[in-house]
Every structure is written in structure tokens, then in C-alpha cells.
Hints:
This protein is of the alpha/beta class. The protein has 14 helices and eight strands.
Amino acid sequence: MTLNEAIASIKPLDEDIKSKVWERWDNLTKPPRSLGRLEEIVVQLAGIMRTDKPKVDDRYIVVMAGDHGIAKSGVSAYPQEVTVQMVYNFLSGGAGINAIASTARAKVMVVDVGVAKKIDISHPFFRDYNVLRGTEDFSKGPAMSRESAVKSIEVGIRVIEELNEIGFDIVGTGEMGIGNTTPSSAILKVFSPDVSLELLVGPGTGLDEERIKRKADIIAKAIELNKPDPNDPLDVLSKVGGLEIGAIAGLVIGCASLGKPVIIDGFISTVGALLAYKISPDVLPYIIPSHLSREPGHRIALELMGLKPLLTLDMRLGEGTGSAIGMLVIDCALSAYYNMKTFEEAGVSRNV
């Protein structure tokens, strides 16, 4: 599907099914709505899947990988070659996301959408859909062309279509790209012009206060130079964005177009979801936010979409780790929904 075709395929959630699921929740042996977000998650999943018996048995974490020209300006504590090194680490099963995803019973797929160095590997869960060998340094000009921005989004849509042919119930977003909190903060600043950059820019991989300030200064000057249009999300992505951020937006749009839930990770993934939302607000009911990270801009990105994270764990690793943990929360929600007894089944009196 093209981007426009995917957008045109998005449908509202099934409200009748959602009402039916709420009715079951209210008949279970507990005070009404006392399981809070757990109840909301199951209702959301049911509305997305159009069944009062939702399941999330087949699950994937998709790690979008891309490099950034802006990384050469010293906005990260790690050198750019770590991106490709970590891709190999993911594919060998040695990263944080591999460890946590295995507990969550999720497969990890890695997609090269913009890594600077070619990845020479044959692996069943690797896709080489490279659009560019990294973005340009957006402190000197646009990060990429508008055409490349669209292509990056369509990579995400393509991956979801492929997974749909294999069969999946839920996808979690993940990413890898040294320096990618900088374009994420830049995108967020464009969409929240009244918020100070000091409230949006964080340490990323571990910058000290002086380098955080330098990072904020670089973003401010880049926005002034490139003048991204906040009313045109594709312009924002092309001027100050990243290829893996665009691909995450494509994952979100792709899931919504096929009636599948997508659970998003931390700051970078949430900015990708925000881009998808700005392109097509109809994606919003399909998004499940897993956690609130330590990156200061993450809360603001979630608030721009009116989303409440499931967890606050002070994480800032990325890779899809929060998405995988969120899947475990979903397991708890579905277990309560299916395994609790109703008042009648348990012989328990209702409230008076």
C-alpha cells in the first residue's frame, strides 16, 4: 500500500463490541472499573479487532534502524558506528530488547531503513529496506527530501503488510539510531512551539548538562534555518526528522489500516506515532502507549495525543523494550478478563 491508500483504509473502532466488553467487565467479581487501565486495554483491543474475544498470541517487536547526519555535531554520547553494531547485536539475540521480548513471547524483527553502512547478513528477521545511507546534517539543511520522507513511512507500512501475510495480532515499535533523540526533539518542538526547548531536550544516551544545552541550541538553529511547516507533517519529517522515525509512523499507520493494535515504546517511538497522528488523526484509537520514559519530551509528546502511559519505569533505552513490557501488562489484562468469574458464577452478592 502507498501512504495515501493506507490512510484511506483506516476505520473507526467497533463501538458495539466495546460496549459488550464493558458489560462483561462490569459483571465480574470486583467493584466497577476497579482494574482501571487493564479494563480499558481489553476494551480497546476488542474494538480494534472487532471481537469480544480479543487475543494477542502472535506478537512482534519491529526495530527500525537509521543513522543521522546531525550525530556528527556531537549530540550523542556514542559514535555513529554503534548503530550498525547494535543491529548485529539485535540479530544475534544479545540486546536488551531480545532479553525482554523473549519473556514477552515476542519475535524481534530488525529493519534497516537508513543505516549508514550496509548490513551484510542473511537472517529471517532482518529486512534491508534502506531508503538512504543516513540523513543529512539538518543543522546545515534539510535532513532528507520529501520523497525520502514518504518512502521511509511506506517502509513501515510495507513491513506491517508482510507481517499480516505471516499472521500477527499486535506489533510493538522499537528503534535504533545514534543521535535520534535530537530529530525527535526537533519534531516535537515544531509541533509544540509554545513549549521551551529546555523542557523537550534530554540526555539521550547520557549527555551532561553542557552537552544537553548544546543539543538544544543546535535544534533551535536548525528549526530557524529549515523552517519546517507544523501544518505539514511530511515537511517536518523531511526538514528535521529521521528515517527510522518516519518508518515508525508507517508502522502505526499500517497497523491502523489493517485493524491491528500497535504498542509504542518511549520518546522516539512516541514522536513517530505523533507524526502518524498528525498525518492521519484516525490512527489514534489503535495506539497503546507502553510507558513514560525519562526523556523530558516524552510526556509532552503523549499529551499532544491525549495518551496515558501504562507504566512509569524511568527507562530510556528504546529498542522496543517498553513495548515488550507493555505486552506483559496486556497479558495480565486479558487473563483477568477471561479468567475472573461473574457475580452469578461465583455466588457473590453485588453492591447495593
